[in-house]
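Incident log, structure service

09:12 report received: a user says their structure output differs between two submissions of the same chain.
09:20 pulled the input from the user's history:
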Amino acid sequence: MGYAGGVSEPPPPDLDLRLVRYFTAVAECRHFGRAAAMLHVAQPSLSRQIHRLEQQLGARLLDRTPQGTRLTEAGEVFLPRAKALLRSAAQAAAYTRATAQPSRITIGHPNHLDITPAVRELRNRHADADVHTVQLAWNEPRRALLDHRVDAAVLRLPIETGQLHVTILYDEPRVLLVPVNHRLAGKESITLDDIADEPIPRLPDAAWNAYSRIDPRPDGSPAPDGPLIEALEDKLELIAAGQAVAIVSTSLYAGGLHPSLTTVPLEGIEPSHVALATRANDHSRLVTAFRKYAHAHLTAPTPD
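09:34 re-ran on a clean worker, output below:
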């Protein structure tokens, strides 16, 4: 009758999925400030929400250190279960929506890729559709698709294609991002030989690290080592300070993100591929329609 030795078991905590999602973001970023920026919430508010979750669970999940944020033993135990909980909730919502055959689609993209022409066409052609767009971090599209947080994502390759349908929309040349006072600034063009000894920032994602650094180089030699970065702002500051250079697509910094930086054409390397990704088994009418409009309207920016 719910008793063991005359003592009733306490009820399980009612977990707020929003708080669980906040925790996973901090756990993956290992930094409250970066997680807050990714979640578009104020850092003090994020700290309070994490504290609320810890109170619900009765365990401390995260510790702040001078090097950043680390998981406690309880946090290490909770993290994979938190991810599974969020994935299960997202899939339950997605399957329920699919059964009801709703007219809803969510499209993800990084803030530097313009998807407006394709989204506008989708809304014009499907006036009954509830069309949403969300910004995604550079390493977030695959997880967002498989967790059913988005139904389509416009992104830059590389991406692991398992369980996904991925097609290239267009290509862009890549250039070298350097400080304005760099020895190569102002050159008409350069090759990889010109930056054989230049440090290039490393990324935590293995595929992106190899692609962005062209590592190994065509002759098999390793790319020069560079500082490990996780956030775009860190990369820009390192380059502006003269501590590194970076290989980027031509349009990524077209708006001029930092007055101390400039770009130099880089020849003889693979271009940047902008692609559309959806779940491999998703053949809904809105996903199919957006795929058509993305290929028709999303093209390489015209040089100034």
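09:41 both user submissions now match this output. Likely a transient worker issue. Closing.
09:42 reviewer note: Residues 132 and 196 are 44 Å apart (CA to CA). The radius of gyration is 22 Å.
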